[in-house]
Amino acid sequence: MSVRQIDDIEKLKKINQALISRVERSMDQQGNAFSLFQTAINLENRVRSRTEELRATMRRLEVSNIDLVAAKENAERANLSKTRFLAAASHDILQPLNAAHLSVSALAEVQAGEEGRKLVRQVERSLETMEDLLHTLLDISKLDAGVVEPEISDVSLDQLFSSLKSDFQPLAAQKGLKLKFHAGNAVVRSDRTLLRRILQNIVSNAIRYTRKGGVLVGIRHRGDRIRIAIVDTGCGIPEDQHEAVFEEFHRGTGSADADLSGGGLGLGLSIVRRMTSALGHPIAFSSIVGRGTIFHLDVPVVVGTFTDPMALLGEPERPRGYGLFGTKVLLIENDIEVLEAMTVLLERWQCTVKTATSTALAMQALGDTNWIPDIIIADQHLDGGDLGSATIAEIRDYLGRAVPALIVTGDSSDAVIRLAREAGVELMRKPLKPAQLRALLAHLLA
């Protein structure tokens, strides 16, 4: 039926209304679609904008990372350069310091008056403080640069504690303090030298900051570890300084109660933290002001039987006397001041001395076959790039005998220690302590 055939006006109105509603719905749908289309375009623009921002940020981060890597490499190179510089500088500074030590020792032997001997002792203490500071700064530099590689082995705490007690007993007795060590038969896995330095610094601090009572070093088994405890009855450490004590040049508020006549540079615990980090040995402490402090160090324990190779050698025979009268010494040293000072000192000990500054001159000094040295003392770094260890080996080959020998050097590297071990030669660090030198010479000649 067509619209024209519809006579009912109401019916026509309804049809018209329905058509209008359909058209309006259609228009609304088209409007919604257009709105969605516009929204999609806007979102796409926003996504594109954010993507560009992210890309720009990533590019900036990449540039920053490159800069950070470059800065890190520069810092590492600077740190290694600092270490090499300090090593070289310390060697150069230790040379005149060694000459001063030897000269002061020779001067002490000719002093007849108490006033002169007192001045000599003051100079010796000042030189020892300078020496300790130089060695400490070099140690810190090496540890910070990460060039210290621990040599892990089985370490007998009984032998280590006995050595520390021998070192510190006179100082404790002088202050009227009790000093006790208890190790049992404990054996740990650690670097013997670094572990000794750690305990040495802590015990030294404990004695320095204790006026009455004493210091106890003991152990306690804790599973697969041994806890080494250093207990003192000193002035204690305030809680607000518990972190600061590990910082360089920090000296606690108890300094007024401490005996700082031996130096007290405030570097001991700074080195302790670096060494324990290098070894992976956790360290901590507790303290009560006015009552004392307990440091404890956790070290891996060795299970089973143990034989320390150092124990097989036994205790070195102690010389009954100096025994240096008439001893023929070949002294090889390229620093003229050290050479002259050591010559004077050896001659005062009634030794006959021939000197050289290089391998060639040392061989020339041996041209007289009627003069064969009883002992050789050589610096490690000589003129012309010669090494004392190689010079000693060449002299021994020339003479056809293993002449007792001693390397004295300011070079603290592990390479020198290995060379001395391989050559079967004793090693002493500069600056030399004359009394130790004289005792070692007597022992080698025995």
UniProtKB/TrEMBL annotation:
Domain Histidine kinase as annotated: residue spans: 88-303
Modified residues (4-aspartylphosphate): D379
Cellular component terms per the entry's GO annotation: plasma membrane
Gene3D superfamilies listed in its UniProt record: 1.10.287.130, 3.40.50.2300, Histidine kinase-like ATPase, C-terminal domain
Catalytic activity, reaction form: ATP + protein L-histidine = ADP + protein N-phospho-L-histidine
This protein's UniProt keywords: Kinase, Phosphoprotein, Transferase
Domain Response regulatory: 328-445
Gene Ontology molecular function, alphabetical: histidine phosphotransfer kinase activity; phosphorelay sensor kinase activity
Superkingdom of source: Bacteria
UniProt cross-references to CDD domains, sorted A to Z: HisKA, REC
EC number: 2.7.13.3
SUPFAM superfamilies per record: ATPase domain of HSP90 chaperone/DNA topoisomerase II/histidine kinase, CheY-like, Homodimeric domain of signal transducing histidine kinase
Protein name, per record: histidine kinase
Organism of provenance: Mesorhizobium zhangyense
